[in-house]
Amino acid sequence: MRKGEETRARILDVAEAAVLAKGFGATSIDELIAETGITKSGFFYHFRDKNELARALLERYIENDERIYDEIFGRAHQLADDPLQAFLLGLKMLSEILADLPNGHPGCLVAVMCTQERAFDREIQEINRQAALMWRRRFGSMFEEIMRIYRPREALDVDQLADMVSTVLEGGIILSKALKQPESLPQQLLVLRSFVRLLFQPASA
Amino acid sequence: MRKGEETRARILDVAEAAVLAKGFGATSIDELIAETGITKSGFFYHFRDKNELARALLERYIENDERIYDEIFGRAHQLADDPLQAFLLGLKMLSEILADLPNGHPGCLVAVMCTQERAFDREIQEINRQAALMWRRRFGSMFEEIMRIYRPREALDVDQLADMVSTVLEGGIILSKALKQPESLPQQLLVLRSFVRLLFQPASA
DNA sequence: AGCCGCTCCCTACCATTGGTACGGTTTCCA
DNA sequence: TGGAAACCGTACCAATGGTAGGGAGCGGCT
Q1: Hey, is A101 helix, strand or coil?
Q2: Distance CA A147, CA A162 (A)
Q3: pLDDT of B124-170, one tens digit each?
Q4: What residues of A are in contact with residue B205 (Cβ under 8 Å)?
Q5: According to CATH, what is the number of the domain A1-47?
Q6: CA–C1' distance B39–D10 (Å)?
Q7: Interface contacts A/B by beta carbons within 8 Å
């Protein structure tokens, strides 16, 4: 049990790096087993087929993602009482963490699976959808809290505002990769931060 | 000459749809030639290998993209003298066009190639980079024009502001796909529009 | 002590796919 | 009418995803 999970985790580690670098289709099982140091039978013992590997990868990635967000915005809410200040602080902390990654953000598996939709089964697409909805709820509840105190200078839908955070994250990752400029993602997050601050700035200021 | 280009275009049409739906790796040449109605030899007469197909696909996609933006923002600048109003109008027109697509945005090839980086050669990555830089110049020059008249309520870097448009487009496409909600992309564009309007709104308003 | 089940390894095999090679054929235009 | 452009046909190759099935080491339970 203990050893099995460890091997499984090692496969997932290798696979995640490969998929984020080359895409899912370009990642061969032979390559994974070579780097992990197991055999083909060993691989198929842990995963029925490539689709199940994809599912496991995605689920693990999303869980980890959620944990990171919990941590960052949890800390931000500890440091700032005001929900707006906490949110702005959280965005800044996130931006700084992303800026400190030596090679930039490794890429988002959700985006990878999205750009290769039909290559995966419905279950994976559903996991993807749930992930996006979780992000919406996470940031949406923050904006609701903010709006209980601050009046936005423009009436915007909370869900759409929450989605904007995911949008900038996903879009920023892609732009960073396209431009080969890792600093773009954290910069874009800070631009979003400015926008949000502007939105809730009292009209007199 | 005439016929050759037509066949080539037909291959590219079929390939583009397949790649956007399934990803590049999951799109087989056999499948393409079956749907196009040519033979394998015919395919390899037009494209040396799959990489050259990718390059041709990407180049055609970007050219088309540029043409659409030229059209929309050209028209917007005809309808509105003021650069800010023209930009806001352009964003709205773009949003409406995207909202009218029956199945939503089919996906961005630049993003596809980004999420599968190492699967392609440097030439493709360079084309991708140039595309992102073109977007930056396009929207950047608009923001410069705007800033010659309007003072932003917050000092933001023009390049980063320009990149924000690309970010929201790319991120919106991904979020739309993940959520299976085609209307998200146009909505996100309108949120960005609100942000930009807020940014250049006189402090007194 | 003995056995079960988990976690693999080994070998062999198959269909699909990207790609090569090369000769032949049709089509179109100058 | 001739020659290039635009294919077709066939044969072949290596890599890849996946299947089948037998076995081996090893810890834990009875």
Answers
A1: coil
A2: 12
A3: 889 999 999 999 999 999 999 999 999 999 999 999 999 999 999 99
A4: 203
A5: 1.10.10.60
A6: 12
A7: 184
